[in-house]
Amino acid sequence: MGRMGVLKLLCAIGFLAVLASNVWTISRWSESRGVYDDICYLRQAHLFQKYGLDGFNTDITRDDDRFLSGKLKEISFPDWNDPTKMPCHIWNAKTNKRALQYPPGTGFALALFPSGFQVIPLYAVANITILAFALFGLFRAREPASLALAAVFGVAALYLMINPTKASYSVAPTMMVCAVAGLLTAQLFTGRSSHRLALLALVGFLIGLSVNFRLPNLFLAAGYCLYLAGAFLLARSKETFLQGVSFGVAFLIGIAPTLIANAINAGSPFSTTYGGVDVAPPELNSGVLLSYLVDVQFTLLAISAAWTAWLWRFDQGRARQVAVLVAINLAVNLIFFMTHPIFTPYYIIPIDMLSLWTLLFATLDLRGERAADSAAFPQPANA
Description:
The chain is an all-alpha fold. It contains 14 helices and 2 strands; from the N terminus they run H-H-H-E-E-H-H-H-H-H-H-H-H-H-H-H. It starts with a helix and ends in a 7-residue tail after the last helix.
């Protein structure tokens, strides 16, 4: 085993140590930490386990076994027995229902595990998935600088799986999707695959799937849509048209569970189940802006922006295509979240991680190609 092999092995052992620490921390978590969102995600999981696919119907009247009210009573919610004051449930006059505001994906993911032991295994699976992609990046590194980049990135990605990922159950499955979509997005531009339409369809499906975990993940598709639309307007070719259609159709297939849930609970696939401040018109708020500026999310965003600018200077057409896509996606998401009236410690984590995973794999591929070319055609030594 050469020097690079030994270094990769040592880095992999370091990743495993971070994973072990994460799993130990997760194993001591409680599913009753007093957060309303947690209880509501668990209620969606309970409905799927009790009714199967009929669990899409989250009408508060279906709490006939007192699951939700019991959970609220456990945390001393003052109106735990009043259906009209249950948190996370919005009244909809069109359907005459008070239904859960969240899309169904996070609840479905939790429902895959036994009741009472759902959060710990979900986060354990998410951590193991991120470890797998971190290792994949590590072993794709072909020279010391790339290895150092992959090592630092892998440790950071695993660390983020505890904080701020623990802030919302919806972030754990989102993080997994961002890793997969980031790898495939990089492959769209740096790979030699002839199956570009299939790759675009898979990325579109994954981004659509992420919307089922968090509705704001809808904006993760913005950069792809604008990039593909721009490519079509510039080329006006059958190929670019089919690329856009491939992504769009797959995205709609991925988002289908949320559209079904909206139709059942809000009366239309394109009507929202959200209410209150979540549907307020965009506005600049100095308090929200300051909260982002001093938060780790903004640090990750700044790293993404700087990395994108560096990739643009890589002086390769494919590198610049990746940079343009990531830059557009970052800009659209930044505008949306900076004008949203509320702040949370995880709102822009998905766009941060989708961008960073894309940039990581694109960088590793491009630097790997350059290293291979240098090895195959070494420069002659100066006389």
